[in-house]
Amino acid sequence: MNAPGFAVQDLTVVLGRGRRAARVVRGVSWSVEAGRTLGVVGESGSGKSMTVLASAGLLPPPATVTGSALLGGRDLLKLSRRELEGIRGRRLGFVFQDPMTSLNPLLTVERQITEGIEEHLGATRRAARDRARELLATVGIADPDRRLDAYPHQLSGGMRQRVMIAIALSCEPDVLVADEPTTALDVTTQAQILDLVRERQERMGMAVVWISHDLAVVGGLADDVVVMYGGQVVEQAPVETLHGAPAHPYTRGLLGARPVLGKRRDRLTAIPGTPPDPRALPPGCVFFDRCPVKGDPRCETEVPDLLEVGRRHYTRTFCPEDQ
Amino acid sequence: MSSTAGPGEALDNRTGPLLDVRNLCVRFPGPREGRHRSWVHAVEDVSFTIERGRTLGLVGESGSGKSTIGNALTRLVQPTSGTVRLDGQDVLAARGARARELRRRIAMVFQDPYASLDPRRTVGATVREPLDVHRMLSGRAGRKRRAAELLDLVGLVPETAARYPHELSGGQRQRVSIARALAADPDLIILDESTASLDVSVQAQIMNLLRELQDELGLTYLFVSHDLAAVEHMSHHVVVMYLGRRMETGTTDHLYSRPAHPYTQALMSAVPDTDPATERNRERILLGGDPPSPLDPPSGCVFRTRCPLAAGECAEPVPKTAVSGDHDVWCVRTEESLSPERLRRFVH
């Protein structure tokens, strides 16, 4: 398939109005084709979640969203609320970080899965239940018959996240958006979930957008990675390039900040300071305050463009590091 | 320092470990079924020591009992049995002034600085509070000066003293928590997931700070975390916990280079490798299912219900086996788990 599964173009999100307005996403563009996985990495406040929430019309007013979000040739930002509801859940599936807050505590697992199947695919109650049982089995839940009648509080964290994935996959969406889906889980459970998503994607060929603060999690899953900072894309590259030859000082900082299993060092290369306030962004490079390089007089005054520095490798800095 | 210890005791203590925990058990009452009361076995028969100026890492997943151990040491929960000695003094049996003095010497830094700082108190007042409680430094001016010193020590500017927690970033708040923990001049600091809720770049700042403080002040840490890489980075010794029990203990270098327990091996194999090429090609040990309920733990080895090497003998009580001098494992299948083919998957 040549058509992109999902793409955002020049997406901008402003929360609030007037002097307190926060520009949380600033001109973000990326795309992911069917059968491929895009990793979107950034720390809190980088705008990584806001980008996908805004593109699916999930931000409450007073958010101002401009740009476009293309799914199968249609711009989601131009659709009516009703049309969007027909697409979310049907062609665009979501899995969020905390399954306890995204599942309805008052409904059984069965009802939460069948709701979308009946609504979007017009299945009968009985057919939907059969499908729900099948889905639970494919996401690796033992004894699916019994679990259909369970309520969310009766399940473990890992099982709840499997139910979320079953719901997201229930209508065989074209695109799966997973927003920090393993952050609240134990490492051994995280490994199970990563494995499950990989296997489901191989079978169903959907496009996956995987949002995470953890470069290592994304490293094993994604084909391409976008690194966000202060509402902008600061680097974008195929996953091997990003890990092997990161060009932006921020990406290099992130890679050096994590302790790595089996490679002990005396000091971690911490990035000093804290991310910028989206209500008071610096005039120049968004990373300027914390940057160890600051290698160009324009850094403080001009916003660098996102420029190509290698094959499919883009970075937004005046001082790209040589490999 | 140890003003409450007898002279002979104090002399004795300098040579022994700072903290000595023996056979610690913590059980919580569970639901009642008829006339039978069930118990949550949160911590079962855990022993360890920490030498002065060193860090012990306590690693495990949710429900492993690692946080309960920290809470038991500070008497936030009452252990069911076992002893805890700090510098030879019985922490759990102490009463009155002696208990207060021991509490001064064990400080704690929690996971979430948003929840553990009083939102209506300035940073200065928060950091001064332990000084007030323990009646250290007489006079307002002296305490203020000490609070300013403490803020400087954790890398905050003096003006921070007048700020409220909501005005600070997550990393700054965690620095305030550390300054508060240092205020009463403790010997042992329990760090319970103290970097877990911070952004990656800030986590590194806090871990560097903690190690600098340890070098400067000779502090002793109990580093409680689910993060294997962070534990490896911070600790001299490690205890791996599962469902309230020790699975494996050893020096960090030895345990990480030669993990002997199938659970430790599974944990290590679950950590994503930072190199995408290695990550894609390596074999992972995927554990099936979820941990069993601590209300009704399996007999024998509690990991056996998910263990890829489990055999019939695993249902019997598990003896401690020495892998090498300072490296112990609670597993009867270590010969299999340490086979060269298996180990090749974990050792970097």
UniProtKB/TrEMBL annotation, chain A:
Q: What protein name does the entry list?
A: Peptide ABC transporter ATP-binding protein
GO molecular function ontology, one term from the record: ATP binding
Q: Which CDD domains match?
A: ABC_NikE_OppD_transporters (cd03257)
Family indicated by similarity: Belongs to the ABC transporter superfamily.
Among SUPFAM superfamilies, the record links this protein to:
P-loop containing nucleoside triphosphate hydrolases
Query: What InterPro entries does UniProt report for this protein, alphabetically?
Result: AAA+_ATPase (IPR003593), ABC_Ni/Peptide_Import (IPR050388), ABC_transporter-like_ATP-bd (IPR003439), ABC_transporter-like_CS (IPR017871), Oligopep_ABC_C (IPR013563), P-loop_NTPase (IPR027417)
Q: Where is the ABC transporter domain?
A: 6-255
Task: Kindly give the Gene3D superfamilies that the UniProt entry links to this protein.
Answer: P-loop containing nucleotide triphosphate hydrolases (3.40.50.300)
One family name in Pfam for this protein: ABC_tran
From TrEMBL, chain B:
Lineage, please? Bacteria, Bacillati, Actinomycetota, Actinomycetes, Kitasatosporales
Q: Which domain of life is it from?
A: Bacteria
Membrane-crossing ranges are none
Keywords linked to the UniProt accession: ATP-binding, Nucleotide-binding, Transport
Identify the InterPro entries for this entry: AAA+_ATPase, ABC_transp_ATP-bind, ABC_transporter-like_ATP-bd, ABC_transporter-like_CS, Oligopep_ABC_C, P-loop_NTPase
Q: What's this protein's family per the entry?
A: Belongs to the ABC transporter superfamily.
Q: Which SMART domains match?
A: AAA
Tell me the protein's name: ABC transporter ATP-binding protein
Pfam families for the chain: ABC_tran, oligo_HPY
Kindly give the NCBIfam families that the UniProt entry links to this protein: oligo_HPY
Q: Name one GO molecular function term.
A: ATP binding
Q: Which PROSITE patterns match?
A: ABC_TRANSPORTER_1 (PS00211), ABC_TRANSPORTER_2 (PS50893)
| This protein's record includes keyword Nucleotide-binding | yes
UniProt source species: Streptomyces daqingensis
Entry coiled-coil feature ranges: none
